[in-house]
Design goal:
By secondary structure, this protein is of the alpha/beta class. The chain is 39% helix and 20% strand. It contains 11 helices and 10 strands. The chain binds adenosine monophosphate. Adenosine monophosphate (AMP) binds next to helix 2 and strand 5.
Length: 282
């Protein structure tokens, strides 16, 4: 695997690949890699793409400075995992490389409705930060395919909107969520959980499963209250348990069988905020 740290070196490294048949598949990450990230690489490989993974902990998308400060960094282990997954290129830029103009007074994007709800409401500025870094990364990689995890469903929708704003024909692929045996969605932030917190964290997925299981038998506001009560009882600080239209992210007051529905959840356990979601079967 070739490791490059500057946009110029990335461009040079990609030159030989671009002249060939293979498409460029891009997997942006913030590192502290796990099997969820590797499944994105595998998806790109299955499409016979030349794979470019980036690792960059983007300062502009952290609305909480403590979260940024404590974000896990495991670069040596990440390199081993990417090499084992036969990733072709790792782009490992510095903050100055990505933001030569500094990180204040950056451009803003009209991301519309998808930025205003759920994590957009709970984490002001977060999706602008995502758009700022993604725009720079997309310029640098010029990928044919972009692979993103459904685990961050709203982020997928935001990036889809960004691609449309940019009139960028990079094809976005939403990759299903990889889970631990107890259902907990794999996440870099899981490394920060204490043993006790980790033992409880599977409850988020259980709530999503119960939202799905009770579709058609109970009103959603009752199911929602049961989930919130259970989470609070176990010591979580829930942000939301929500049902939304999976195509638009419009918040649904109740189960709507005619729509594609998705259940979404966010909750703090200690100072760690975990998110997850589950598209409901039709
Ligand atoms: P992150 O490093 O958290 O910014 O994530 C980088 C990419 O990996 C994003 O597209 C995430 O949605 C995706 N990802 C994170 N966790 C998972 C998971 N458990 N399963 C699949 N993809 C994931």
């Amino acid at each position: 695997m070739k490791i490059v740290k500057s946009k110029a070196d990335l461009k040079a490294a990609l030159q030989s690949y671009r002249s060939g048949q293979a498409k460029i598949g891009f997997i942006p990450t913030m590192g502290a890699l796990h099997e969820g990230h590797i499944s994105l690489i595998k998806n790109a490989k299955q499409n016979a793409d030349t794979t470019v993974c980036s690792i960059f902990v983007n300062p502009t998308q952290f609305n909480d400075p403590k979260d940024f400060e404590h974000y896990p960094v495991t670069i040596e282990q990440d390199i081993t995992m990417l090499t084992d997954a036969s990733c072709d290129i790792l782009f490992l830029p510095s903050v100055t490389e990505m933001y030569p103009e500094g990180i204040v007074s950056l451009e803003s994007y009209d991301l519309g409705y998808v930025e205003t709800v759920l994590d957009g409401a709970a984490r002001p500025g977060h999706f602008q930060g995502v758009a700022q870094v993604m725009s720079r990364l997309l310029d640098a990689v010029q990928a044919d395919n972009l692979y993103m995890g459904q685990k961050d469903y709203q982020q997928c929708m935001v990036v889809k909107q960004l691609l449309s704003l940019r009139e960028d024909d990079t094809m976005i692929h939403f990759v299903p969520t990889m889970r631990e045996p107890d259902g907990l969605a794999m996440s870099s932030r899981n490394r920060r959980l204490t043993e006790g917190q980790r033992a409880l964290a599977g409850l988020l997925y259980q709530c999503l499963v119960s939202v799905e299981a009770q579709n058609g038998t109970k009103a959603f506001d009752i199911v929602k209250k049961e989930c919130l009560d259970l989470l609070e009882h176990k010591g979580f600080r829930p942000d939301y348990v929500t049902l939304a239209d999976a195509d638009t992210l419009e918040i649904l007051e109740d189960y709507s069988p005619s729509r594609n529905m998705i259940a979404l959840i966010a909750a703090f356990i200690g100072d760690i905020r975990l998110i997850d979601n589950l598209p409901l079967k039709k």
